[in-house]
């Protein structure tokens, strides 16, 4: 049996599973590069059909021939009343590749159980609708076009070679916990191969040679309240809970939010220089590593080193300092292949950026402070702008480590930087206590209290 005959048989098998679907529902539309399926049951049959067909028929094999063959049918009737043409089989079966167009496809929910697939004009497509049927004398078989369109759009996501490097790869970093969480003594040291390293200075900023994937250190897991941060002043910069007036700090729950909205952390080897006023925000840096909000679906853990890609950045003006908030996605997240820039976040995670803006604006109000302000009227800048900020802060860190900027009270001890006068040997690292796996200390019930802020969007 020829490849095309097998394709036709598979199409018949799939379509005959929809007995109540009238043949007129499969009429083609003149609307162009869209395929609209007005039957949810036909939509359910399509993936089954294409999964079995994608390795049997390739778009390159769809060259028409003059010899007629049996066409596709629905309940024994020719599909759409078209004439059929025989398709020449490929001359070299080893040359067949899975169909994978260079353009991306998208889907959107439509009324009346309608599913719409779109592609670029450079690819053939079929629109299945009850409106505007085309003349029957088509030179290319409708079944062949169905085969080409659906096997391409469903089975071939856009290639993302830069996201494959860490998929499924276990982290090379681990966490050494010292002391009891929710106490003044708690410290989380980052280790590589069992040896403590500095999350501020030792972990590389970039995770691949192309510098498209970055390392992020998670300080605060999503939905938690303890304000944990890389300690700039202590040896090897462990993560600890922030303290104010001798008390542990917790972020308040501003209705309807609970704790932090994202996995919150920092980029290693970055620094927001307090000696430099940014030309656009008109404010100096906040003297911290660059803050990061990771919007993926999995809740991280303190000390986790995630591989992420940058999507955008907000500029918070906190006590007359520029406090950048970089928006990123874990490269292993299911949405990573769909989120490429900040507008994609609104498309696939509607409302998240508005909630992020609100959260940063009001989160200090329960502690008696005024609401925070933003540069750029609260606008979240795109990926290109965000990467420029990352590069600026990486350059500032370089100046810090080479003595071109004053370190103040910061520790720049490290274990990996060649030629650094602050590089330490194993004897000093041995002074760090052994790891402990202690249960968190209980926290005050007031940490779970909700605060209702007038003017907050719900």
Give a description of the structure.
The protein is α+β, with helices and mostly antiparallel strands and 458 residues long. The protein is 18% helix and 21% strand. It has helices spanning 3-15, 40-53, 142-155, 342-348, 352-362, 383-401, 426-429; strands spanning 34-37, 64-65, 73-74, 77-78, 86-87, 106-110, 114-118, 173-178, 187-192, 195-197, 214-220, 228-230, 239-241, 243-244, 247-248, 253-254, 263-266, 284-285, 291-294, 305-318, 321-330, 373-374, 450-451. The protein has a 5-stranded mixed β-barrel with strand order 11-17-19-21-20. A hairpin with a 3-residue loop joins strand 6 and strand 7 (114-118). It is globular, with a radius of gyration of 29 Å. The termini are far apart. Mean pLDDT is 75; it is low at 14-162 and 164-168.
Helix/strand/pairing category: alpha+beta
CATH homologous superfamily assignment of the largest domain? Inorganic pyrophosphatase
Residues in β-strands, percent:
15-25%
Q: Determine the N-to-C terminus distance.
A: 61 Å
Q: Overall 3D geometry?
A: globular
**Number of structural units classed as domains:** 2
Keywords: Cytoplasm, Hydrolase, Magnesium, Metal-binding
Family: Belongs to the PPase family.
Organism: Coccidioides posadasii RMSCC 3488
Cofactor: Mg(2+)
């Amino acid at each position: 049996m020829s490849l095309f005959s097998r394709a036709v048989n598979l199409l018949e098998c799939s379509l005959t599973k929809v007995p109540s679907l009238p043949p007129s529902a499969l009429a083609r539309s003149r609307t162009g590069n869209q395929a609209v399926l007005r039957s949810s049951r036909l939509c359910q049959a399509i993936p089954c059909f294409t999964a079995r067909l994608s390795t049997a028929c390739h778009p390159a094999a769809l060259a028409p021939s003059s010899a007629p063959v049996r066409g596709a049918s629905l309940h024994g009737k020719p599909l759409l009343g078209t004439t059929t043409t025989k398709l020449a089989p490929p001359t070299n079966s080893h040359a067949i590749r899975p169909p994978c167009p260079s353009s991306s496809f998208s889907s959107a929910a439509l009324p009346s159980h309608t599913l719409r697939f779109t592609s670029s004009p450079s690819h053939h497509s079929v629109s299945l609708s009850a409106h505007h049927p085309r003349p029957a004398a088509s030179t290319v078989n409708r079944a062949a076009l169905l085969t080409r369109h659906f096997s391409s759009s469903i089975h071939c996501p856009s290639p993302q070679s830069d996201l494959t490097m860490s998929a499924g790869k276990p982290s090379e970093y681990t966490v050494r916990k010292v002391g009891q969480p929710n106490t003044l003594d708690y410290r989380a040291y980052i280790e590589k191969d069992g040896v403590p390293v500095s999350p501020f200075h030792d972990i590389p900023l970039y995770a691949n040679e192309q510098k498209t994937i970055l390392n992020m250190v998670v300080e605060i897991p999503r939905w938690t309240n303890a304000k944990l941060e890389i300690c700039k002043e202590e040896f090897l910069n462990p993560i600890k809970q922030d303290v104010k007036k001798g008390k542990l700090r917790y972020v308040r729950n501003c209705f309807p939010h609970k704790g932090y909205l994202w996995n919150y952390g920092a980029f290693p080897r970055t620094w927001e220089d307090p000696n430099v006023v940014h030309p656009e925000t008109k404010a100096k840096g906040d003297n911290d590593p660059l803050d990061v909000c990771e919007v993926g679906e999995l809740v991280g853990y303190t000390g986790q080193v995630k591989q992420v890609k940058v999507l955008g950045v907000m500029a918070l003006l906190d006590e007359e300092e520029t406090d950048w908030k970089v928006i990123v996605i874990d490269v292993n997240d299911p949405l990573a292949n769909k989120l490429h820039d900040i507008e994609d976040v609104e498309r696939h995670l509607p409302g998240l950026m508005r909630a992020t803006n609100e959260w940063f604006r009001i989160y200090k109000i329960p502690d008696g402070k005024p609401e925070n302000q933003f540069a750029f009227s609260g606008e979240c800048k795109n990926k290109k702008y965000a990467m420029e900020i990352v590069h600026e802060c990486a350059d500032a860190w370089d100046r810090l480590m080479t003595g071109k900027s004053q370190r103040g009270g910061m520790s720049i001890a490290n274990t990996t930087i060649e030629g650094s006068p602050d590089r330490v040997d194993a004897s000093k690292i041995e002074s760090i206590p052994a790891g402990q796996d202690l249960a968190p200390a209980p926290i005050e019930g007031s940490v779970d209290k909700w605060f209702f802020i007038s003017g907050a969007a719900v």
